[in-house]
Amino acid sequence: MPSTVVHVGFAILLAAGLLKGAFDRRALAIILVIVVLPEADTLAGPWMDGAHRALLHTLTIPIVAGAWLTWDTRLREPEQSWLRTRWGDWGVRVAWVALFVHLFAHVLLDWAHLEGINLFYPVYDRFFRLEGELVLSSSEGLVQTFVEIHTDPETGDRTADAGSVGTTADTHVANPVELSAEPEPDDPILLPIAESGWQLYLALTGVFVLVARRFQDRRDE
């Protein structure tokens, strides 16, 4: 799974592109806290089966947060907006970027790896993984395997499979708090930084962008 370092690198890229004039140390600190926060669900692992990638790795949080932000910053009058009256346009932009960073730099990035995430927990307890391919074939045309249709040979009923993995009762995602579903006494504690070349590349690109933005800000000053 992508490490916290990879999530942070991706978050910096999104923040640099979306914050525009609101990109400062305070905004960056908020963004980094938001992108790291979902990992806190590992702490609930010893007391709840499948807590990691379920409690805070779910679309229900950004859906609720996005609905509130839309109501407060888009549907209400500017002088009535709770967020805008306290932190102005800076606060509105940072809040929206924080939501996008949480969604794209953490939740959906984990969706594409190994056991995936519990997409709609606690409304619907089911882990899903984004896995498949989308190709343009000279013989078959557009082919995708992300959603597969299965037909029951006896009844002819069709069901769609979008990468369903399991539930919190039977899905375990290894993490530093719970190394495995059945840990051994001599299991090493590993804190991953990058588990593949593309993850290291993404993390280093985020660091590069952060340094580059700093030099740009100094030059503009």
UniProtKB/TrEMBL annotation:
Keywords: Hydrolase, Membrane, Transmembrane, Transmembrane helix. GO terms for molecular function: hydrolase activity. The keyword Disulfide bond does not apply. The chain crosses the membrane at residues 6-23, 28-48, 54-71, 92-114, 198-215. It comes from the Archaea. InterPro entries: YdjM-like (IPR007404). This is Membrane assocaited metal-dependent hydrolase. It comes from Natrarchaeobaculum sulfurireducens. The lineage of its organism: Archaea, Methanobacteriati, Methanobacteriota, Stenosarchaea group, Halobacteria.
